[in-house]
Amino acid sequence: MKKPPLHKSFYYTFKGLFWLLKNERNFQIHCLGLLVNLILIFYFKLQTWEIVTVLSVTFGVMITEALNTCIEKICDFIEPNFDKRIGVIKDVAGAAVLIASILAVVVGAIIYWKYIFS
Question: For substrate, which residues are the binding ones (predicted)?
Fold first, then answer.
């Protein structure tokens, strides 16, 4: 199969991003978290290492959510009816998002603590 031109690759990539934004409630919530973090970054004037850390864990959650959505869509395509094995796959993928989210909250609490309570 021939690779599409670079501009088409970007088109398809952004098409996927906009699909996530339009159709996935959890991804929308994670985008809201990104917006809140961007506001806090500017409001508290975080140091460079703090900005990199906060954005890394925030985007990590968003990436994990996107991959979770891919796994769920593949599972639904392979087996549209309920199957316990598919359920385990989806649950574990969801757990990955939860783990990334817990890390993001912990990192955020550690970094923002001194700005909020000083």
Answer: 65
Q: Is 65 annotated as a binding residue?
A: yes
- Whether residue 104 is contained in a domain is answered as yes
- Is 73 annotated as ligand-binding? no
* Region of residue 45 (phi > 0: left; psi between -120 and 50: alpha; otherwise: beta): left
Assessment of whether the complete model's pTM goes beyond 0.85: yes
Structural domains of the chain, count: 1
pLDDT in tens, 3-61: 889 999 999 999 999 999 999 999 999 999 999 999 999 999 999 999 999 999 999 99
User: Can you spell out the DSSP letters for 18-55?
Assistant: HHHHHH-HHHHHHHHHHHHHHHHHHHHT--HHHHHHHH
Residue 53 sits in a domain of what CATH number? 1.10.287.3610
Domain that holds residue 44: 31-116
Question: Active-site residue among 20, 65, 104, 108?
Answer: 65
Residue 19 lies in a domain: no
Establish whether 79 is a catalytic residue. Answer: no
91 is in an annotated binding site: yes
